[in-house]
Amino acid sequence: TLTEEEQIATLVPSHPSQRGSVTTWTLSNDNPHNTKILDTTDHNKTIYLVKPDFNGKYTMTNMYRMKDDGTEGDIFGFIEWHELLPDQISFNGAKKVRKGSYFSNGGSFAHSFKDEQGRKYTWKGIGGGLTPSLHCDDNFNRKVPIAQFTRSRLDHSVDPPAVIPAHIFVTPRAMEVKDLLLFTFLVLEKGRRSKETSEGNRMSSWRAEAPGVLPNEGTARASNPGVGPGVKRVE
Predict the structure, then answer these.
(1) Whole domain around residue 188: which residue ranges?
(2) Quick count: other Cβ atoms within 10 Å of Cβ 89?
(3) ∠116-11-149 over CA atoms, to 5°?
């Protein structure tokens, strides 16, 4: 497993015009659908809030930009959960669509999409125990990711063992589409985790407590791995 410094090193853009400091986002909760996104490089400022809701019919994952005063801003994206049919998603107020119509298949564990300017991006490593990373066609070196996600893990090198939270490393190029980056990641990460659970407990293992959710629909929380007696969390 690469250290945080080693992961950041792999994201240093090859082209001089794209070089700059890599921003580190930290997830406050191991469940990416019920978490704050903190900018670790800006005094742990909360920049996004992701939380569950209920619209009277479906469980939702709503994504908020945070205002400078720390209050919730606008919803810039959402996922509408469906049991049998594909989830419906929307970004920046656009008409909601099925997840499958938003992304094109870029190969095994790869999903492509475009921004408003028509520039193409591909998330690679979504599934198969791989490291999710975002690539763009206009990057000087397409093999170098412009963003990368690292899952939370236990650090056994310290006593007591400490939980290192999940991070998203974001280059200056990825910051150009930071809302879209987070939106697409959350949509794909939900799909990945859903596939890793059995059909019988899929919704109950994923669904955080949300208003209006019936008990038989499940209200289990996703928890940080390894958290318990003798384990601490490190930011």
Answers:
(1) 18-211
(2) 24
(3) 75
